[in-house]
Amino acid sequence: MEFKNKDIERQYLEKVSHIQDLINAPVEDKKYFWNDTVDFYAKKIEQIRRVMADEVLSADKDKDAEALIKELNSFLARCSSPEFQIALVGTIKAGKSTLINAFLNYDLASTRVTPETAALTKFKKAAEDFVQISFYTAEEWAQLWKSATDTRNSVFEKDYIALNADAEKSKWLNCETQRKTCANKDELKTEIERWTSSKSPCHYFVKEVLVGLKDFDLPEGVVLIDTPGLDDVVEFRSNITRDYINRANAVLMCVKADKLTGGEHITLQNVFTNTFKHPEKVYVIATQLDTLNKPQTQWIEMQAEWTKYLEGEKYYRSVELVQKNVVPVSAYLYRLLKKYRDNTISEDDEFELSAILNKFRIREKELDSRFKELENFANIKFLYAKIQNEIVTKYKKYLIDDIIASYESHQNSIKNIIGKKKQDQEKVIADSQKNIEEIRRERDKKIEEMKAAQKDKRELSEFVKQLKRETSQRVDELVAAIKG
């Protein structure tokens, strides 16, 4: 760019040099070394992020740029902590926690009739059983409280008051992350319930719970996530789930087998939009088969109806993939059958199991002989094996594919924002050049006017002198004439 003002040119070149130094500075960060491809893309994004965050480009407080920096930070966090996240999402009481318990083979996630999962809960393989709790900051709590109290639904506020939760607030807001090692599964369950159950006063202030399990049949890099309901009365918590839908590497969308409503359709569309050309990573889980009046025949009818929608362009885009990835389950029946087999079933559970047997037209005395039939219908083992074979065994490849796709998406955003900033800067420079030219023209005009005024002054002075001479001569001639 050619500058007419040397001072502006100097400032411009200094900024360009500064940005170039930021770009060329090496990124020495071993946390990206787990994969060469990830390391390559992460370092490129790290260079761009520090340029975008630098005061030279961020001084104008551009909201789009600030949002992009936040996204780049999230991208780098994914690259440095290579976790493959399998998120269970759905509306309240869609059966997410029951399904997790079936996967874990132990009732760790609370499944009471009231909405239970109020905090994001992660399960991962670890050397010891532990529960780790992170808490909201005061600022985050203010946003959550505003979200809760702005809604016309007063359930949140009433429960908050009934539990006297305000007395707990000062203990937990801005509190450092806490971790407790548990001696056994029962202690683990009690600790999880304390921090995640909506009936616990301190759960309001919990941002995230991480559960480490020695007995967890998934690789160390895979995390199973139980999310708050998408129709939580507090939009702030529902948004946490929506955010995880966008970030998750695989999604198990839990939908009650007897309905597929408009809300689920919208959520499913968002899920498929964010899977980066991998619809096979989305599993629509038709839960609670046991609640159908005639489970074996009614699901066949429901499945045909679901296929009409899910084979469309916004979803799986093929009947074959619908048939492959829509999986009906009854996690509750599976858990009851396991308790029956292990002789740990309670009297209440026996009544529940008996009611389900009636729907299958199975007498209690026939349970042992038809046990395998019921277990197969519950379909949990099939679903678990499916996830292992189709997702978990390929999780590293999927993780890298997602990072590359995310990089390409960010690349477009970066180009747009940098292009906009370039246009803005060029306009500023052009305006400054224009202003200088206007000043120069004004100055030259004034100089010309001054020169013209000086010329007029000289001419006037000469005219006055000439007038004086002529007047003096006439006076002399007049005096001489009088004397004569």
Count of DSSP strands? 9
Oligomeric grouping of the chains: single chain
What is the number of helices?
Answer: 18
**Which structural class do you get from the secondary structure elements?**
alpha/beta
Strand order of the largest sheet: 4-3-5-2-6-1-7-8-9
Order of helices and strands: HHHHEHEEHHHEHEEHEHEHHEHHHHH
Q: Give the helix proportion (percent range).
A: 55-70%
Shape type: elongated
The main β sheet shows up as: 9 strands, mixed
Radius of gyration: 37 Å
Distance between the termini: 85 Å
Query: Are there runs of 5+ residues with pLDDT below 50, and where?
Result: none
Strand content range: 5-15%
Mean pLDDT: 79
Structure description:
The termini are far apart. The chain has a nine-stranded mixed β-sheet, sandwiched between helices. Helix 1 (6-24) runs antiparallel to helix 2, helix 2 (36-53) packs parallel to helix 18 and helix 14 runs antiparallel to helix 16. The chain has helices at residues 6-24, 36-53, 55-58, 63-80, 96-104, 138-150, 155-162, 166-172, 185-196, 235-247, 262-273, 295-310, 319-325, 331-341, 347-359, 371-378, 380-390, 395-483, and strands at 84-90, 120-125, 130-135, 178-181, 206-213, 222-226, 250-256, 282-287, 326-328. The model has no long low-confidence stretch (mean pLDDT 79). Strand 7, helix 11 (262-273) and strand 8 form a beta-alpha-beta unit. The chain has 18 helices and nine strands. The chain is 60% helix and 11% strand. 29% of the residues are buried. It is elongated. With 484 residues, it is an alpha/beta fold.
